UniProtKB/TrEMBL annotation:
The keyword Lyase applies. 4-CDP-2-C-methyl-D-erythritol 2-phosphate binds at residues 9-11, 35-36, 57-59, 62-66, 101-107, 133-136, 140, 143. Binds 1 divalent metal cation per subunit. It comes from Paenibacillus antri. Its EC number is 4.6.1.12. This is 2-C-methyl-D-erythritol 2,4-cyclodiphosphate synthase. Gene3D superfamilies: 2-C-methyl-D-erythritol 2,4-cyclodiphosphate synthase (3.30.1330.50). Pathway: Isoprenoid biosynthesis; isopentenyl diphosphate biosynthesis via DXP pathway; isopentenyl diphosphate from 1-deoxy-D-xylulose 5-phosphate: step 4/6. NCBIfam families: ispF. InterPro entries: MECDP_synthase, MECDP_synthase_CS, MECDP_synthase_sf. GO terms for biological process: isopentenyl diphosphate biosynthetic process, methylerythritol 4-phosphate pathway; terpenoid biosynthetic process. Keywords: Isoprene biosynthesis, Lyase, Metal-binding. Homotrimer. Pfam families: YgbB.
Length: 159
C-alpha cells in the first residue's frame, strides 16, 4: 500500500525569536513567529505525514490554544507524528520538501536539515530531499515578511 500526503506551512518573521528551520538554528536577525518554535519546514513535513494517513493536521494534534505546546520543539512534534505512522505500520518511501524564503539563505543548512528529517522519520538521508527557492522578491516571502514551506511524503506499508 502506498499513501501520499502534502503539507504547507507559513510563519511570519518576528524580532527576538530564533530562526529554526528543519531543526537547524540558522543565524539570522529575526526568527519565526508561532506558538511552538515555528519550524515551518518540520510543520509542513508533519502535515504531509498526517495527511497521508488521513489524520488531519498538526493544528488538530498540537493546538496553539494548548499551553503544553508553547515554544514546543517541532522536532519532538514530528517524532510524535512519525510514531503514529509507525504504529500503523508505515515506513517512509520518500519526502520531498521546499523552503520558500528570500532570506536567510538555506543552501548552507540543507544537508543538516535532510539529516534531521531523516532521523525523525527513521529513514536514510537518501529518502529525504530538501530544496530552497526564493519567490523572486514577490509576495510576503519576497518582501521578507516570513517563510513558507511545502512537503510531500510517500508512505509505504506491507499488506
Amino acid at each position: 500500500m502506498i499513501r501520499v500526503g502534502q503539507g504547507f506551512d507559513v510563519h511570519a518573521f518576528a524580532e527576538g525569536r530564533k530562526c529554526i528551520i528543519g531543526g537547524v538554528d540558522i543565524p539570522f536577525e529575526k526568527g519565526l513567529l508561532g506558538h511552538s518554535d515555528a519550524d515551518v519546514l518540520l510543520h509542513a513535513v508533519a502535515d504531509a505525514v498526517l495527511g497521508a494517513m488521513g489524520l488531519g493536521d498538526i493544528g488538530k494534534h498540537f493546538p496553539d490554544t494548548d499551553p503544553a505546546f508553547k515554544d514546543a520543539d517541532s522536532m519532538k512534534l514530528l517524532e510524535h507524528v512519525w510514531g503514529l505512522a509507525r504504529e500503523r505500520g508505515y515506513s517512509l518511501g520518500n519526502a520531498d520538501c521546499t523552503v520558500i524564503a528570500q532570506r536567510p539563505k538555506m543552501a548552507p543548512h540543507i544537508e543538516s536539515m535532510v539529516a534531521n528529517i531523516a532521523r525523525a522519520l527513521g529513514a536514510e538521508p537518501s529518502q529525504v530531499n530538501v530544496k530552497a527557492t526564493t519567490s523572486e522578491k514577490l509576495g510576503f516571502t519576497g518582501r521578507e515578511e516570513g517563510i513558507a514551506a511545502m512537503a510531500t511524503v510517500c508512505l509505504t506499508k506491507l499488506p
